C-alpha cells in the first residue's frame, strides 16, 4: 500500500487498462525500477516509508512549486501562508520593473503578468522565501487563418535535378513556391528534419527521422550546398574539387532516379561535408559574420553542446557512454578541455547549424511569398536516440535506464519498445521546462505549424525499464497543464498552428482537452468509422471514429499497424459521412507509415505484407477482409456522388477520396504527395527492419519509376488530381490569404 501511494505521488501508474473493463496490475519490480529512475528508492518497506516521510517534509516546507503555470483569468492554485507577498520579475524587463502580484484579489495587482516566462518570488511572514519559474500562457493555440489544403512529403524522397542524391532544402523551397502559386496550396508538411545520429565505418546512419540525435537542431545533410553564399566565391583548386564532388553527387542522383538505387544518406553527407569544409574556408563578409555571431549568441549553450558533441562523435563515435573517461559528462573538466582542444571543429558544426537555419528560413519565406496561409509544417519526433547529442547534453532531464513505448493491447499483445529515453517530469518542472521551451522555440523559428508525434505523450508515456519486455512497463504521468501551457506560449510567440498526432490508444478526456486548447487532431480516412464504445483502435478510450496508424512515426522496427491485420476494423463499424468528421483536425487519406492510397485501393499492401511474412492470418482471408473495407468506402463515395466515373478506376477512386476529404469540415486537408503520381510503395513499413527499405525510397509513379520534382510538376496525373482538389476546395469555401500575407501574429504584450 505504501509503495502504491509513493508511486501515485510521483505520477507512476500501478495499473493500466489495455481494453475497456480489463485492468492489468503493474509488477512491483517495474514500479521500483521506474521510481528509481525518478530518484526515489522504493526497494524495501523501510525505503518506501523513508521516501514517503521525505516527500511529506518537502511538501510542508515548500512555499512554491518548482514551476507555476497560469492562464488569463485562471489564478494559480497556490497553498501560501496568509500574508505571503508575491513579486514577479519579467523575463526581459520589457514590461517594467518587478511588480506585486496578488492572484485572486481585487485591483490591478490581481491581473496575471503579461504572457511569457517570468520569475515569481514569494516572501512568507515566517521568513521563508522561494522563487520559481512562472509561465503565463494563452488559453488556446493559434488557429489556421483560413481553411486550406497542402502536401505531406518526406523531404529526402523528393529529388530534383539539383539534388545531391536526396531531397534538400532547396527542393523544399521550390516545392513550396510552386504548389503555393500554381495549386493554391496552403502548407507543406514535412518529416522531422532533426539531426541524425551520425554513421560510422561499421554502422550506417539510422535513416529513420524519428530516432534523431537531436531534436533541437536540424540535420545539415538537408543543405543545398550551392545556395551557401560563399560557394560562389570558390576559386582555384577548391573550386575544382567541389566540381568533382558535384559530378559524384550527380551520379548518386542518377542512380536513385534512373538505376533503382536506394537513397544513401551517408554517401550524400560524405560529399556534402567535404564540399562544405572547402566552402567554409571562404571568409564571411562583415554582414554575414555579424549574422553568424548573432546566431551563436541566440542559440547559446544548447548550440555549444550540440557542436562539441558532434566534434567528439567524429573522433570517438556517437556512443558517448563508451567515450574516454570524463567525456560522457558534458559538465566535466574533460569536456571543458575538449571544448578548447576542438574549438575549430565545434565551430564548423555551429556554422553548419547556422547555414541550415538560414535555408529553412528561406524555404518558409518562399512558402509565404507564394501565398501560403501556413507554409512549412515541421514535425516533432516523440523522442531522441539514447546515443545522441540531446541524451548527452540533457542527461539530467532524461530518465536513465528507461525507454518509451506502448503497452500491450488487443492488436499487439507484446507491446512496443521504441528505444527512446523519456523526459523526467520532475526534472522538467524543476528547471522551469527550460529544455522543452528551448526545443519548441527552435522548431518554431521557421514554421507556420508544428505536428507533434504521439501528442498523448504530453499527458503520459509508457516507460519500459532497460532490459525488460515492453509488457513490463508502466505509465508515467506528466503535468499536462504545464506541457500544454509551454506549448501554447511558444506557439503564440511564433504565430504557429499546432497539430497533434492523436491516433491510437488515447485515455478518456485527452482529445477533448487538446481540442479545448486549440490543438488540431489528425484524422485518417480509413480509420474514421463509428466504432461502438470499447471497439476500434483506442484501447482505454474506445472513442468513435479514431484509429491507430501503426503507432505512427516511431522507428521502422515497430509493429502494430492497424487496419493491416484484418479484424482491427469491426465489420459493423461503418465509415463516417463527411458531416460526422470533426472540424478541428488535419484530414488525410494516408500517412508515411501506411499504404499509399493506390496500394490500399488495389490490395497491393496486403500482397506486400504477405511477401514479407507480416500477415497474421491466411492470405485469402486478409484479401477478403481488406476488400470488404475498401468496398464499404467506395460504396459511400458512390452514394455521395463523389465517384462519378464509376467503380473499377483506380485513379478515379484516388480523386474520390480526396473529394470526400474536402467535403468534411476539417480545417486542414493533407494530400500525400506520392499519391498524386500513383506511388504504390509505403515510405515506412512497420514491423520490418532490413526486410524493407524504410525511409530510403524516392517518390515513384504507378509503375515504380522514381519521379523527380520536375517530373511531378509536369505530371498529368498530379494535375488531374489537384484540379479536382482545387475545384472541390472552391465549392467547400476553402480560401487563402493574398500572396505574402498570413494570419495576424499575436503580440507578446497581449494583456493576460
How confident is the prediction overall: mean pLDDT?
91
Strands across the major sheet, in which order? 18-15-12-9-8-21-20-19
Distance between termini? 43 Å
Radius of gyration: 26 Å
- Total E-strand runs: 21
Q: Helix/strand/pairing class, anyone?
A: alpha/beta
Give the uncertain stretches in residue-range form: 534-571, 736-752
Tell me the fraction of residues in β-strands, as a range. 5-15%
Q: What share of residues is helical? A: 25-40%
Assembly type of the shown chains?
Answer: single chain
Please outline the major beta sheet: 8 strands, parallel
Shape: globular
Put simply, the count of helices is: 20
Word description of this protein:
It is an enzyme of class 2 (transferase). Residues 92-103, 543-557 have a biased composition (Basic and acidic residues). Belongs to the disproportionating enzyme family. This protein has 752 residues and is an alpha/beta fold. 36% of the residues lie in helices and 13% in strands. The chain is built from 20 helices and 21 strands. The strands form five sheets. The protein has an eight-stranded parallel β-sheet with strand order 18-15-12-9-8-21-20-19. Helix 1 runs parallel beside helix 3, helix 7 (286-316) crosses helix 9 and helix 18 packs parallel to helix 20 (716-732). The protein is globular and about 80 Å long. The two termini are 43 Å apart. Mean pLDDT is 91; it is low at 534-571 and 736-752.
Task: Describe how the helices and strands are arranged.
Layout (H helix, E strand, L loop, with lengths): L1 H8 L5 E5 L2 E4 L2 H10 L7 H17 L5 E4 L14 E5 L9 E2 L15 E8 L5 E8 L11 E6 L15 H15 L3 E4 L3 E2 L18 E5 L17 H23 L6 H16 L5 H31 L16 H9 L1 H27 L5 E6 L8 H5 L8 E5 L9 E5 L4 H6 L3 H10 L5 E4 L7 E6 L8 E4 L2 H15 L2 E4 L9 H7 L4 E4 L60 E4 L8 H6 L1 H8 L7 H21 L10 H14 L4 E5 L36 H6 L1 H17 L20
Parallel strand pairs: 3-7, 8-9, 8-21, 9-12, 12-15, 15-18, 19-20, 20-21
Antiparallel strand pairs: 1-2, 4-5, 4-6, 6-7, 10-11, 13-14, 13-16, 16-17
Helix pairs in contact: 1-3, 4-9, 5-6, 7-9, 12-13, 18-20
Amino acid at each position: 500500500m505504501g509503495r502504491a501511494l509513493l508511486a501515485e505521488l510521483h505520477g507512476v501508474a500501478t495499473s493500466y487498462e489495455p481494453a475497456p473493463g480489463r485492468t492489468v496490475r503493474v509488477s512491483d519490480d517495474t514500479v521500483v525500477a521506474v521510481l528509481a529512475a525518478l530518484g526515489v528508492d522504493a526497494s524495501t518497506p523501510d525505503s518506501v516509508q523513508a521516501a514517503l516521510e521525505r516527500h511529506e517534509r518537502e511538501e510542508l516546507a515548500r512555499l512554491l512549486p518548482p514551476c507555476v503555470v497560469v492562464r488569463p483569468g485562471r489564478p494559480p492554485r497556490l497553498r501560501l501562508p496568509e500574508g505571503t507577498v508575491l513579486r514577479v520579475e519579467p523575463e526581459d524587463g520589457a514590461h517594467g520593473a518587478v511588480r506585486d502580484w496578488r492572484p485572486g484579489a481585487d485591483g490591478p495587482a490581481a491581473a496575471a503578468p503579461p504572457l511569457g516566462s517570468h520569475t515569481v518570488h514569494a516572501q512568507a511572514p515566517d521568513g521563508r522565501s522561494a522563487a520559481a519559474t512562472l509561465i503565463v500562457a494563452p488559453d488556446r493555440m493559434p488557429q489556421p487563418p483560413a481553411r486550406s489544403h497542402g502536401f505531406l512529403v518526406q523531404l529526402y524522397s523528393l529529388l530534383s535535378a539539383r539534388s545531391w542524391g536526396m531531397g534538400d532544402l532547396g527542393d523544399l523551397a521550390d516545392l513550396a513556391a510552386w504548389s503555393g502559386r500554381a495549386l493554391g496550396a496552403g502548407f507543406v508538411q514535412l518529416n522531422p528534419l532533426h539531426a541524425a545520429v551520425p554513421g560510422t565505418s561499421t554502422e550506417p546512419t539510422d535513416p529513420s527521422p524519428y530516432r534523431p540525435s537531436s531534436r533541437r537542431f536540424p540535420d545539415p545533410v538537408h543543405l543545398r550546398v550551392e545556395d551557401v553564399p560563399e560557394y560562389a566565391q570558390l576559386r582555384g583548386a577548391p573550386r575544382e574539387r567541389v566540381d568533382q564532388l558535384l559530378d559524384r553527387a550527380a551520379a548518386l542522383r542518377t542512380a536513385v532516379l534512373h538505376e533503382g538505387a536506394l537513397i544513401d544518406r551517408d554517401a550524400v553527407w560524405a560529399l556534402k561535408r567535404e564540399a562544405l569544409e572547402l566552402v567554409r574556408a571562404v571568409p564571411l563578409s562583415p554582414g554575414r559574420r555579424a549574422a553568424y555571431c548573432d546566431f551563436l549568441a541566440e542559440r547559446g549553450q544548447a548550440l555549444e553542446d550540440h557542436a562539441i558533441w558532434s566534434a567528439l562523435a567524429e573522433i570517438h563515435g556517437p556512443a558517448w557512454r563508451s567515450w574516454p573517461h570524463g567525456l560522457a559528462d558534458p559538465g566535466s573538466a574533460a569536456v571543458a578541455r575538449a571544448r578548447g582542444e576542438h574549438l575549430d571543429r565545434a565551430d564548423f558544426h555551429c556554422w553548419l547549424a547556422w547555414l541550415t537555419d538560414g535555408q529553412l528560413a528561406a524555404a518558409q519565406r518562399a512558402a509565404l511569398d507564394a501565398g501560403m496561409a501556413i507554409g512549412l509544417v515541421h514535425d516533432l519526433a516523440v523522442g531522441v536516440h539514447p546515443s545522441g547529442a540531446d541524451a548527452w547534453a540533457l542527461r539530467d532531464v532524461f530518465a536513465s535506464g528507461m525507454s518509451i513505448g506502448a503497452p500491450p493491447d488487443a492488436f499487439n499483445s507484446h507491446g512496443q519498445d521504441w528505444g527512446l529515453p523519456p523526459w523526467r517530469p520532475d526534472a522538467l518542472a524543476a528547471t522551469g521546462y527550460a529544455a522543452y521551451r528551448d526545443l519548441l522555440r527552435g522548431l518554431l523559428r521557421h514554421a507556420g505549424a508544428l505536428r507533434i508525434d504521439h501528442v498523448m505523450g504530453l499527458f503520459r508515456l509508457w516507460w519500459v525499464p532497460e532490459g525488460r519486455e515492453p509488457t513490463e512497463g508502466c505509465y508515467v504521468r506528466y503535468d499536462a497543464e504545464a506541457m500544454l501551457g509551454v506549448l501554447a506560449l511558444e506557439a503564440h510567440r511564433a504565430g504557429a498552428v499546432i497539430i497533434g498526432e492523436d491516433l491510437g490508444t488515447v485515455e478518456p478526456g485527452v482529445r477533448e482537452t487538446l481540442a479545448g486548447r486549440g490543438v488540431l487532431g489528425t484524422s485518417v480516412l480509413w480509420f474514421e468509422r463509428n466504432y461502438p464504445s470499447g471497439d476500434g483502435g483506442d484501447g482505454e478510450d474506445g472513442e468513435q471514429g479514431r484509429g491507430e496508424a501503426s503507432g505512427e512515426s516511431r522507428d521502422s522496427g515497430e509493429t502494430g499497424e492497424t487496419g493491416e491485420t484484418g479484424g482491427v476494423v469491426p465489420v459493423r463499424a461503418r465509415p463516417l459521412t463527411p458531416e460526422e468528421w470533426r472540424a478541428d483536425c488535419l484530414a488525410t487519406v494516408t500517412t508515411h507509415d501506411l499504404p499509399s492510397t493506390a496500394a490500399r485501393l488495389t490490395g497491393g499492401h496486403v500482397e506486400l505484407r504477405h511477401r514479407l511474412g507480416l500477415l497474421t492470418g491466411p492470405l485469402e482471408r486478409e484479401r477478403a477482409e481488406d476488400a470488404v473495407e475498401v468496398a464499404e468506402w467506395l460504396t459511400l463515395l458512390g452514394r455521395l456522388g463523389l465517384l462519378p466515373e464509376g467503380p473499377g478506376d483506380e485513379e478515379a477512386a484516388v480523386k474520390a477520396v480526396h473529394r470526400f476529404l474536402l467535403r468534411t469540415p476539417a480545417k486542414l486537408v493533407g494530400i500525400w504527395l506520392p499519391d498524386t503520381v500513383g506511388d504504390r510503395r509505403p515510405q515506412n513499413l512497420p514491423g520490418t527492419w532490413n526486410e524493407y527499405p524504410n525511409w530510403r525510397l524516392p517518390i515513384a509513379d504507378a509503375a515504380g519509376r522514381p519521379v523527380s520534382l520536375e517530373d511531378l510538376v509536369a505530371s498529368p496525373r498530379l494535375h488531374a488530381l489537384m484540379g479536382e482538389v482545387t475545384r472541390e476546395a472552391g465549392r467547400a469555401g476553402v480560401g487563402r490569404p493574398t500572396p505574402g500575407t498570413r494570419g495576424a501574429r499575436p503580440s507578446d504584450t497581449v494583456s493576460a
